[in-house]
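Appendix B, example 12.
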Amino acid sequence: MSESQEEPSLHERVEKWLAREMPIIQMHGGTSAVRTADPDTGEVIIELGGGCSGCSVSDVTTGNIEAELLKWDEIEDITVRVPDARDQLGGPDQAESIMGIDRTEGGRGDWGSSNPGKDHL
């Protein structure tokens, strides 16, 4: 079998399943990442972030993901983590932009700042 004909890895299949079966994550501003997908042990770890952090129904989403993926023969143990938003962004004292999220003045950047800087219009 050539490389292009190989079956996708467990990691790739879980990622594709998340994108196909759980579009609500992205629709609500969330993100998902497969951190571990070990076909030898059957362990899968998924981390949800973005809008999922601090979401009041993230426990429902995690439960649905766990219930569905445990039906897969090759998955023995599934963990879905939703980090606290403060942990994910570096805490309340970190003002700089992280991964495109601007934490200054409600995400408006310098527009709401009392010191808008030299490039302010």
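The first helix runs from residue 10 to 21. Helices lie at 10-21, 23-27, 58-69, 85-89.
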